[in-house]
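Pipeline run #58 for the internal structure catalog. This entry was flagged by the ingest filter as a single-chain record with no existing model, so it goes straight to prediction. Upstream metadata was stripped on purpose; only the residue string is passed forward. Reviewer on rotation: M.T. Logging verbosity set to normal.
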Amino acid sequence: MSTILLKSNIKPRSLRSVFPWVYDCCSLKRNKTNYIPNIFKLAWIKNFSSNADDTVQKKTNIQPNYSVFHKYEKIMDAPPGTFSGSSDRFNGITVESEAEYEADDTDFECKLKKSLIHWKDCKRRCIWFKVKTEHADWIPRLVKFGFDYHHAKPGYAMLCYWLPTEEEPNLPKYAHTMLGVGGVLINDKNEILVVRDRYAQIPNSWKLPGGFVEPKEKLVDATIREVLEETGIDSTFITVISFRHTHIGNFDCSDIYAVLALKPKNMDIHLEEREITKAQWMPIEEYLKHPKVHETNRNFLKIYLEYKKRNLTFVCENAVHQILNVDYELYYMKFHDKESNL
């Protein structure tokens, strides 16, 4: 992706010091759409919503076509005494215990050995075994033949074995980054919604409401849900503010923390006491100076205030993948010519 860097007659001031890429990657000139980086131009070319409403578009009813992406094809001509499995687009084989497990299979090791020889002759690459929990007796026998764990989830473990000896394995790592969200909500009294976490690393500190994104949950939906669960405040999406990326997450994972601005629909707080000990609306001036507010959280608010000053949003548009026929979200920067009500 190429990025166009342009000069501006407006001095960067605090925006550059707080969030440098906003100033460096985008022109703040009046004719703004001519200066958007190429990837954002494509967004408009692809016929995304052209109205000025920055809300998330309604979800469309579509039928995903995952087979085009994964391209699993069941093997119909496997030699007798071998596992059948399914081939993938990378010339690998996946065997699922749910389909091929036999409780009285005393010849498992012989069957596996014969299968490995056949797959090597066919120049297959990676062999995957998806083993359900109730078929876990397969696992030690697979390990004996050189299989190793790739990942595990509730209900199954996935083991793999790289066959080619002349080619280095280039298997994708399993999901290695956790995703969390936080919400910046400001009411009509210029107060920000803050909470105290029961298990905070810094006792009695104030932070933004939020939490982890659930599997297959959208960033916007997750942020709205987490804020509602913790504080009872319902809200609508305004803009993405910032991302924080670290490598000290749980389970040796990296961690991405997305901060979104939301517009509150109600003011009355209903506390979720299992994780939150206190929640309140705090004046912005107090929040920016409060000794129990982490500097990073103060910066999130400063960035958002700069967005408002410069009539800038980082919007979310829904689109549909042309081949896979699945919906996805495109995030991009958008300028507003008129005074914004962010």
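catalog note: Residues 1-60 have pLDDT under 50 and may be disordered.
catalog note: Residues 35 and 286 are 37 Å apart (CA to CA).
status: ready for reviewer M.T.
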